[in-house]
Amino acid sequence: MKQKILVIEDNEQNRYLVTYLLEANGYEVAAAKDGREGIALASSLQPALILLDIQLPGMDGYLVAQALRQNPALDGVPIVAVTSYAMVGDRERVLAAGCSGYIEKPINPDTFLAEVETHLPDRLAPAGGVS
Ligand code: MN
Questions:
Q1: Fewer Cβ in 10 A, N or C end of the chain?
Q2: Considering only CA atoms, which of 18, 37, 2 is closest in space to residue 116?
């Protein structure tokens, strides 16, 4: 079964790149252009993971993460912030808002998928066991 990933990102190029990388690797992707759309989609889709841009128009990603975390139906769904903010303290702020992790922009196509998958809850254990 394909796992669904919700991407909340206002920048069209980033949305396209992230969607492409995920779909090329077998994930089903739903995309939202802003926080309100993302919050509504998260409720209806029940995604396995949410990728959340922090710089969004209107409601920023911190507020979106807090709102998502208030929805009990999304308990256990990881929210991974994707942001170019690289200042000291931003990581802590992202985690405090309810995100489970952080991927830095610009997105690196060679490592992006592996970074996302470290946050997926239903990963199968590697065939060889723990290495
Ligand atoms: Mn943005």
A1: C
A2: 18
Using the mean position of ligand 1's atoms as its centre, give its distance from the Cα of residue 50 in Å: 15
pTM of the model: 0.90
For ligand 1, the distance from its centroid to the CA atom of residue 25, given in whole angstroms, is: 23
Nearest to 80 by CA among 70, 89, 68: 68
What is d(CA 21, CA 14) in angstroms, rounded to the nearest whole number? 11
Centroid of ligand 1 to alpha carbon of 65 (angstroms): 14
Beta bridge partners of 29: 5
Which of 79, 88, 43 shows the shortest CA–CA distance to 61?
A: 79
3-state secondary structure of 64: helix
Q: Report pLDDT digits (tens) over 70-87.
A: 999 999 999 999 988 666
CA of 52 to the centre of ligand 1 (A): 9
